[in-house]
Here is the input.
Amino acid sequence: MQLQERINAFIKLGDFLRQFSNEVVEKNDIVEHNDIFFDGFKHQLKLAEEHNGWFTKENIRFALNSWAEALTLDHLNTWLKPYHVDNVSPKTVAIIMAGNIPLVGFHDFLSVLITGHNVLVKQSSNDKQLLPFLAKYLEYVEPLFKGRITLTEGKVQNFDAVIATGSNNTARYFEYYFKDKPSIIRNNRNSVAVLTGEETEEDLKNLSEDIFRYYGLGCRNVSKLYIPKGYQFDAFFEGMYHWHPIIEKAKYANNYDYNKAVYLMSEFDMLENGFFMIKEDESLASPIATVFYEYYENKNELEAKLEANKQQIQCIVSNGFTKNEIAFGATQKPQLWEYADDVDSVEFLLAIR
Here is the structure.
């Protein structure tokens, strides 16, 4: 397969996904193989929602829209321009996927196939309805993908390299189990926001997207705030308020009630607004419905602290604080060239021999 053939196939997949990325699903008759796949994918979306209570229509639609926007000729060409992708000797790359948000492992899946390798996927049991269907669609729009995509529920074997994502505990297991293979091993990370007190109403409203999207379950969700001494939270809570319907979701509400009860019984100081809590805590990882905060006095000292903890941090959300910062509201819309853990997976894949 030539690179352009692979790019064209993923562009067609983006066109297919675009039909499902709005609140009202609209069939586009010019999308290839819609007669075979359109109704079937609607059914898979329903199954995904029923199987995992965190995968609401809104969150699935958000994920599909993000991929529809990414899988365009312009974005794919911009992403791949720095690399020499042609004449790759195909290897089999295993991907062990997480299941915390819909299609969370799709970037790895895309990266393996777009670089000319074969992919062996072990999905999470929490997210197994969507990818097999999309893989089959790819095989229809580009028959040369047939035989290059394998999904397994059993032991991962007969592969040349691996990309594995899991918890801190499973990452240690992965590092031992895959010690003789080229690998990218990812573990738990969290994202933080640095506030100055000068944020606009729009900044804080955008920050709420970084906090609440996917119920805060993603590594790119902000779980920790760094705030200056004397910071007043009134404007912050106002920026969060439009997310208040989230409390109507049973799984979220159960976590909110449980964590609130724990904090009250433990007599921890915390602030809450009926659907969300903030608590002073040095930890980076916070429970669902909670964000931790920590005061800072000196920008340089905070920069040093974040640098020391960079292996635990996925994104830093701020405005003018650091050169690698993410804009408010942008954490859940990474570009193709923004790699998890800042590890260039395409460079890794092209180096496999």
